[in-house]
Write a sequence for this structure.
C-alpha cells in the first residue's frame, strides 16, 4: 500500500501516520515528491486491507493499493494452469474445450431426457439443469427441487454425462453433492461469503458465476474464499455484467477472458446464453468466447423454448445447438484448441 | 404483457402465438398498427412473467411488460404508508425521522459502549453494528460473531437503544433474532432468495439494503419475497449503486428515494456512509437524503476511525456525528419532518 | 506517477525503465517493497500523462497516477471560491443561490414570454431556453435557431433576467454571444475539445454540463480546457450520469456536489430536470441538491408540458415551479445559504 | 407508441389524452386490460417521439415506444448489406474482412512510414493515424494537425494504402477530405449532431465510433443523421463502453456486433485497442471480434509503443501485429470469411 499525504500535511501528521503504519506491523518507506510525501507500507500483503482506515487520519489524502489482494488464485503463486476433473472423464483447463449445456431448469423427465440425448449426440461434455432456481419474482417457478436432482441423476446415468446444478444455500450442499458432479454458485450468490466458505470445504469442483456488478478483482477474491477453504477445484464463468445497454440482457464482458487467463491459473468458461439473453446472439458470442481464449462454454438448450418455465428467450433448440457445436469446432481449431 | 409481432410475421405465426397465449390462460386483445400487429395478454398479472418465453416463438419481435411485477409492495395495493415498529418505542415510516448509527463492526466492549453512549447523547434512535461481517477478502476481519451479539445487547440495555445487525445466512436467523430488534439483509444478499424467504417467516422487522446493481424494480421484488412470506415489517435502504465513477465508493442514487416513495408504501432510508465511502461527504449527503424525502438515515460512527477494523474511511467521529444530527434537524424542519 | 515493476522484472528491465523516465525529464525515486520495485517520477506534473506509455515497456506492471491532472481548476491552485458574474446583477459562487429556469427549447414568443413572466414573479434569477437543440433523432424539432435567440433577448429585456443558451458549434459562438449572458456547453459536447478551446477564448461565462459518462476528473479536465484558454468564468453543472437504472432518465449523482466543492473553486449547480426525466421527481431532488451544497439549480419550466416540443415529461408547470421555489428557500436557510 | 393510463384515470382524462393524440395527427386504438387502459397511436413513425410529452398529462402512467426510431439505417428499409468503397480497391461490408491499422497519432515522417511499411507487408488494408487528436488534457499532445495530414498522404502514396483520420470539427472537414479516403467521427463526438449533419453532406465514407455511453439505438440514430444528410457510406465501429470494470480501459461490447448486424445493413468493425486499453489483450479480442461476425478491425500499431505520444499501452509492435494478422486469417476461415 502507498499512503499519499495531502499537500499541506504537517510534520506532526506525517509522524503520526508513520507510527500508525508501524503499529499495524509494517515497515515504512518514505518518498518525497515535488508536491506530496508518500509512505510505502512494506510487509505481509494479506492484512494490508486494514491500512485503508488510514484515510480517516488527518493529513492523509488517499491510500493506494499496489499489489493484488488475492494469493492462491494468482498466477504468481501457481504458474501452470489448474485442470479440474469434472467426473466421468471430463477435464477442464487444458487444451481440450468443455461444453456444458442443458435447460435453465429441470422441468420434467421427458424434457431433461430429450435434452440429454441431444447433447450426447452432438458431443457436448456435461449436462446442466437447475433444480433449485433463484428467481427475481416469488411468484415464478422455483424449480422441482429434490425431484429435479433425481431426474438429473437419471439423465446422467442414461447418457454418461456428468452433471452440474446450482447450490443456493448451505443447507442443501450435502444433498446436492450426492447427485451432482460439480456445484454451481450463481451470479447472485457470488458474494454470499458463507456459501463460498462452505463450498470451500466440499470435495466437489465448484463453478463460480461472476455477478452482475462484480469486478474481476472481486471475482478472484470470491475464488480465494473457496481456495482458502481447501478446495482447489474452482472454475470461473463470465456470464455478462450489468451496464446501461438494454439491447442485450447483460453485457457479455469477453475481455474478462484474457484478463482472467493472465491473472489466474483457474479455468475460465463463458455463458453466452445469460450473457446476451436472446437465442439469436448465442452462436456468434459462443464463437467469440472460444476465439478469446475461453476453456469452455455453458449453453442453455431446451426442446421447446416457447414453453420453457424460465429463460425461454435465450435457449437454443437442439438443432440450433448442433450448428453451434460444429462452428465451435472450427473456431477451436483456428485458435489451436481441441474439441 | 404486450406481444409485438415482427413486420413480416405470417398469419400462421400470429395464430400460433394467439393459441399459446390462450394456452397460458390469458385472453388476447389484438391491435393492428401501420407496421406491426400487437397482442395484449389480459388476465392475472402474477404469472405473466411466463409469457416472456414467447420471444422464442417465430414471428415474435418482443414481449413488453406493462404492469409492475410486484403486488404487496405496491402503493396500488396499499395506499397508506407502512409504519414499522423497531422496538423500544422507535417507529419508522411516519412524519418522524429515524437515525440509525454505529460502527461498521462490533470490535470490543469499550468500542460499542463508547459509540452507544455518544449516540444516546445526540438523540440517535437505533444502534447498528455488525457481528457477522461480509468481507470481500477471506483474510479480513470477519466479525466477533456470537460475542458481538452479546456486546450489542449489553449496549442496548445500557442505553435503551434498539439494535439492528446483519443476517448473512439462514442458520443464524434464530440466534440473531434473540439479540436484535431488526434483521438487516446486506447489499450482497439482496437476491439471496432463500434468505429472503426465511426472514419473510420471521416476526422481526427486516431492513433490506439495495444491491450494487439492483434496479428499483428488482429491489421491490426482493421486498415482495419478504412480504409474501408473511412479514409486513420491511424497510428499504438505498446505499449506493455501482457505476463508472470512482471518486466515491458507490454512487448514492438519491432519486431512488422519491421513486420508491411513489411506488411503495414501505419506509425508505439512506446510508450515505456506504454510499460515498468517505467521511467528509457523509454530512452533505445525509442532508440531501432527508431533503429528498427519506424516512431516516443509517450512519457509520466509530470512536477512532483510523483504527477501525473495517470501513474506517467512511466512519464519522462522535463529534462529527453530533454536527450532523444538528444539521439534519434543521433540514428536517425545512421539509416538514420531525426529529 | 508511480511505475510498478512486475515481480520477476530483471535488473536490465529496471535500468531501462529508469533511463526512459529520466529521458522524459523526470527524476527517479526508487522504492523496494517485499515483492515489487516501484519507481516514482518526480518533476512537472503537467506532462506526466506521457509516462503512461511506459506500460508498454517489458517488466512494467502498471503506471499509477498520484496527483490530479488538472491545475487551474484545482482548489490547491486557488483556495477561495470563484464567483461568476452572470450579468444584470446575478452572481453565482457565493452564499447566494442562483436558480436558472425556463423551457427546454424556445418554441414561440408567447411561450417564452409566459415562462419569463412566471419566473420573474417567483424570484428566479436567470432564463434558460434552447435555440439550437441537440436531438437524438434527426427527425425531431431542432430549435428555432436565430429566431429563438431573438425571442430570448426580447424576454431578457422585458423581464430583466439574464439569459443562458446552448452553443453547439464553434461557428455560432459569436452570434450567440450577442444575445446570451452565458454560454452553455451541453452534456454531449463536454469532450468536444475544439468547442471547449473556443469558449475558452470567449469573454462570456461558460456553463459546462457533465456528460453522461464523464468522470468527475474528466469533467474538471474539460473545465481546465476553458480555464487554460484564458476564460476563468466557468460554472459546473451535474445533470445525471448513465447507469443501469431505468426508473429515472439518468442517475443524478448528487455526491458529485461535495466532491466537486472539495476539489475545485468553481461554482457547482444541479439540473434535476434532466437528472430525473420526470416532473414529479424534480422538486425533491432540487431540495436535495441544495442540501448537498449546490450553488444553484437549473430547472425546466413550460406553460403546457403536454404540448412541449421537447422534454415535456420533465418540465414543471409554472405553479409547480412556484412551490419548488418556496421549498428551496426553506432548505437554503437550513443549510445557511441565502435566496 | 402505446400510452398506458394510470389505474385510477378518469374518463375525462382518457378523453383528453385521446384528443391530444389525435391532435398530433395519429389515429387512436384503445385497449382495455384488467387493470389498465392502453391507447395505441397509429400513423407516421418519424414524429412519434413527440408523443412522449403526453407523460406530462394527468392520468397518463407512461408512454412506451414499440418501433425503432431509425428508418434509413434499418434492415427493414434495406435488407442487403451495404458495401462501402474505402478507396484504392478496398471495400467493406461483403465477405472480405478489412483490417485498418496504424498509430494513434501521426508523430513524424519516420514513424508513419515505418508503420505503413509494416502494414503493407502483413496485408493490412488501410492506414489510420490521427492528425487532430482529442485529448482529455489540454496539456497533452494535440496532434501534428496539417503536417500530420501531409505525412499521411505521403504514406498513402508510398504504400498504396487508403487513409482514415479523425474529423473533430466542421471547419476542418474540407481540408481533411483532401487527404483522407474516409472520415472518422470519434467516440466523444458521436452525438455532436452538427458534425454528423456536415459529414452527412460529404462525399467521403464516414466511420462512426460508438461513444462510451451510447446505446446501440442511439448509435444507429447517429448513423441516421449521416444517412439522412444524403451520405449512405457509413461504417460503424464498436470500441468499448464505459462500465464499472477497471481491469480494462473500456468494456468491449462484442455482443453489439450480432445486434448491429441484425438491426442494420451497415458494415460493423471493432477496435480492440481502445476497447481493452492494453496491448496484451488486443490479439484475443481481435479474434473474438471476427468470430462474433465483425466485418473488420481497427488496430493501433506503433514501432516503439514505450515512446508513443499517445495510447502507448494499447499499441502493438509491428511483429505483434504480424502474429495477429496470421491468427485473424485462421479465425476468418473458421467463420467463413475471407482475408
Amino acid at each position: 500500500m502507498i499512503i499519499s499525504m495531502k499537500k499541506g500535511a504537517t510534520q506532526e501528521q506525517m509522524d503520526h501516520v508513520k507510527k500508525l503504519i508501524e503499529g499495524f506491523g509494517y515497515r515504512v518507506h518514505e518518498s518525497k515528491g515535488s508536491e506530496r510525501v508518500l509512505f510505502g507500507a512494506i510487509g505481509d500483503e494479506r492484512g494490508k486491507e486494514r491500512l485503508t482506515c488510514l484515510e480517516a487520519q488527518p493529513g492523509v489524502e488517499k491510500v493506494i493499493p499496489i499489489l493484488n489482494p488475492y494469493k492462491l488464485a494468482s498466477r504468481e503463486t501457481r504458474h501452470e494452469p489448474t485442470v479440474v476433473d469434472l467426473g466421468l472423464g471430463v477435464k477442464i483447463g487444458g487444451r481440450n474445450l468443455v461444453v456444458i449445456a442443458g435447460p435453465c431448469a429441470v422441468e420434467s423427465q421427458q424434457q431433461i431426457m430429450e435434452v440429454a440425448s441431444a447433447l450426447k449426440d452432438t458431443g457436448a461434455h456435461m449436462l446442466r439443469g437447475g433444480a433449485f432456481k433463484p428467481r427475481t419474482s416469488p411468484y415464478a417457478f422455483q424449480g422441482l427441487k429434490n425431484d429435479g436432482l433425481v431426474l438429473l441423476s437419471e439423465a446422467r446415468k442414461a447418457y454418461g454425462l456428468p452433471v452440474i446444478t446450482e447450490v443456493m444455500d448451505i443447507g442443501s450442499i450435502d444433498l446436492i453433492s450426492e447427485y451432482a458432479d460439480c456445484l454451481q454458485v450463481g451470479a447472485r450468490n457470488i458474494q454470499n461469503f458463507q456459501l463460498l466458505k462452505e463450498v470451500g470445504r466440499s470435495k466437489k469442483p465448484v463453478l463460480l458465476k461472476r455477478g452482475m456488478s462484480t469486478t474481476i478483482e472481486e471475482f478472484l477474491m470470491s475464488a480465494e474464499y473457496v481456495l482458502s477453504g481447501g478446495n482447489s477445484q474452482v472454475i470461473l464463468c463470465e456470464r455478462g455484467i450489468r451496464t446501461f445497454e438494454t439491447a442485450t440482457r447483460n453485457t457479455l464482458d469477453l475481455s474478462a477472458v484474457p484478463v482472467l487467463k493472465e491473472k489466474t491459473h483457474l479455468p475460465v468458461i463463458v455463458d453466452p446464453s445469460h450473457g446476451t439473453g436472446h437465442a439469436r446472439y448465442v452462436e456468434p458470442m459462443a464463437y467469440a468466447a472460444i476465439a478469446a481464449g475461453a476453456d469452455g462454454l455453458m449453453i442453455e438448450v431446451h426442446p421447446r423454448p416457447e414453453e420453457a418455465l424460465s429463460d425461454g428467450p435465450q435457449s437454443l433448440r437442439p438443432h440450433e445447438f448442433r450448428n453451434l457445436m460444429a462452428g465451435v469446432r472450427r473456431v477451436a481449431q483456428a485458435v489451436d484448441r481441441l474439441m
Notes: The interface with chain C takes residues 213, 215-217, 241, 243-248, 251-259, 262, 275-276, 280-281, 284-285, 287-293, 327, 330-331, 333-335 of chain B (CB under 8 Å). The longest strand of chain B covers residues 27-32.
